[in-house]
Prior knowledge:
By secondary structure, the chain is of the alpha+beta class. Helix content is about 20%, strand content about 35%. Strands 1, 2, 3, 4, 5, 6, 7 and 8 form an eight-stranded mixed beta sheet that branches. It has a three-stranded antiparallel beta sheet with strand order 9-10-11.
Amino acid sequence: MKLAEFRLRYNLNPLPELDLIQLSEELRQAAVLIALYEREQELELILTRRPSHLRAHPGQISFPGGKVERSDPSHQFTALREAEEEIGLLSTNVEVIGSLPAHKTFTGFEITPFVGIVKQPFNPILDPGEVDEYFTVPLSFLLKRYNRHTECFKRKGVQYPVHFIPYQDYFIWGATAAMIDLLCRQLCPDSHLSRS
Length: 196
C-alpha cells in the first residue's frame, strides 16, 4: 500500500468494532507511536524489541513509547518524546495523522496509540536501556488477514482475545499485535470476513 492510499483509507474508513476488556483496577497511562515510513513506494511499520532486563514486558516486541510523565502536556507528546528517546526519531520528522482508541492491558496499562508518518529517512539511534533491536515490517504483510491471528484464553474464569503475528524470527503478540490488527481492520474493513 502506498502512502496516498494509506491516508485515504485511514481518513475515510470508520474504526472497526473493538474487543473490549473490562478491568476494574486503576490503569497507568502510556502512549505509543505507530510509525510508518515509505520505502520504495511501500509502507513499513517500525517496531522494537525490548531488552530482557526491563521489569515491564521484557524481550517483547513493541512500538516506541512509554509511560505518560506528569510533565508531558499530552499523550501525543509522550509518544513522540519516547520515540525520540528510544530510537532517535525526531518529533519534527513525524506527521501525526490520528490516534486509535486506548488499549487496556492485564499488566495495568491503558495505552493510547498515535499513528504517524515519518517524513524523511533517518538513522535509528537506539537507547540500549530501552531498546534491544529496531526492525520494520511491510504493511502489505500485516494487511493480509491470514498473517494476523487471534486466540481466546481464560483468565479468572473470563475469556479474552489474545492477538499474535509471527513475522520472520519475530513473534509479535499482546497489545502491540492487537493495535496492529485494529489498524489493519480500519484500513481494510472487509478483512474481518476472512478471519482465521
